[in-house]
Please model this.
Amino acid sequence: MIEYDLQANKMVLKLVYYGPALSGKTTNLMSLHGQLTGSDCGDLMVLDTASERTIYFDLLPFFLTAPSGLKIKVKVFTVPGQVKHDATRKAVLQRADGVAFIADSQVEESLNNATSFENLEQNLALVGLNPETMPLVIQYNKCDLPNISPESTIRSTWQSTGIPLLFASALEGWGVVETFRCLALITYADIDKQYSLQEHHGLSAESFVSQLISLDNNVYMQER
Amino acid sequence: MDMRESFSFVVGEEKKLTDVLSEAEVMPLLKSAVGAGLNLVAIVDTAGATLWFCGPGLNEPGTMLPMGVADESRPIFLSGEMVGRVYMSAGKEIEAGLLKFLTQVIGDTLNSMIQSNIKRMMVTELHTKVVQMSYDELLEKNKCLAESEQKYRELAEHLEARVQERTAKLKQLYARMLQQEKMASVGQLAAGMAHEINNPLSFILSNMKTLEKYVNRFAELIDFYETQTMQTHSGDLIDCLRDKRSGLKIDFILEDIGALFSQSILGAERVKQIINDLRGFSHIDDAEYTQIDINKEIERTLGVLSSEMPSDVEIIKQFKEIPLVPCKGASLCQAFLNIIRNALQARPEGLQLVICTGIENELIRIEFKDNGPGIEPDIQERIFEPFFTTHSVGAGMGMGLKLAYDAVVSCGGTIALKSKDGQGAAFVIELPSNGRKDD
Model:
């Protein structure tokens, strides 16, 4: 969690899109932003890139308010996937509340997926987060491409971990919102356990997710 | 937890409008707006407090903007979130259209200024953080490398010493092994020789005794013939026999023959004794630990050494009755041999060696005291060291006293040197009378 300011009645959460290079993390956020325009999300901030490759991170903020008046800001980040930017990944991962691991469905990418996932577990531990309890979803992206691993193989690979598994094509736009919804739900469950969002702030899981994803009006955004 | 925790900011940390905009950036914009004919420009946070302003009607930042002073306003966003507004009121000469236009321009300028500032700040912060993290990691890695280098260097230095230590030890063990092997082969040789020599020696001795008996009978027969002839025969024959007898020197032969036999038998018995000493000295037939009579062992050792001793050596034995001691006889004999030999080498001519044995406070005490030149004080501490020798190269390995030392220690005893320069040397061995095994 980035911030929980009781005086200002404000909570800032961090969600991170992790994964190997070119698996479509930025495309996910762009697609999400495109599909949710007009809902509670702010502008997608894409920091300077090097020939279209993320070298810093992208940021998409969301704003919602609990019935108690608690303002919740959800900042969604992507990390640079290239191996050499490991320090940046670590910096972005710090104090994350939930992680979406974006894997590449193409057969020849399976090794890169595994390496990157290992790197995620390692970096979570390095920044003081527990990989076992961190809310985590896995998205197999690029399902629109021809040479991809069969769904059954992927499912049997991850089944034992119990991590929610989703399939998507960020380019075509499907599976993106579902992944975000899933991540939001499990992150809510985790935060609720620690901060009693339901009990103290009257914020239910459905309300949390629907405020993030619906087209409801937003107090922050009423001027636009 | 580690160095990463020391960081003051986190990627995505919340920022206030005053963090992102500075007075130096904002004020020129506000001033030029006023210069363009506006009466008042003010930037206000979400709570309504002024952050920056230009124009009359306000005294200081932080005060609330009075209601109704502003004609137009625009929202200000910080990464998608509205964080304040910019308010403007028109001067007398400004048309409504121009006011709207100026408000639009100032609002857009502020928003794009915020947008580019926040991007720059995020990049700078991330960059600083990444550099710091990498630097810390490098420092850590450097520390580890330095430690490991130090470890290896110590190991290398240590290794050299260890190798030297081991080499010395091996050399020592090798020399001792060589000596033991030598002793074992001497023992085996002695045992074999004793067996081979004893058989012929026995029948030589036995035959000599029988021969002596037979020769005595011949003498007796000669006597008988002589007596009978003298009683029954004529003078001619008697004279003839007498001449023959004196011609063959029979009287002398009969006299000498007894001495020849007794000397030969004595000589053969001496050979037998030497063989037995050699065999006993090597302890080839004994178990490792046996009950040892120290006095007898010293006698044996002297017997073995007899061939090496010049005729002018005087050995003075002052033996007292001492109990049997359970220990390794072969080692102990070896120790005695080396000590006596050391004395022989110390004084080749006119050596007088006093050997005393006795028992004192449950300790068997054996002293070898010579009248040699003694041992110089500065080498006294080194004489029991392996390979330490004062002899010229080739005369000895310098293992003699070291082996004596080892033998005594292995029997649970001690060996000490008492020597004053020029007054001879005395080696004192003390053994526990109840016997004690060290290993």
Summary: DSSP finds seven helices and ten strands in chain A. The radius of gyration of chain A is 17 Å. Helices of chain A lie at 25-35, 86-93, 110-126, 151-158, 176-195, 197-201, 205-213.
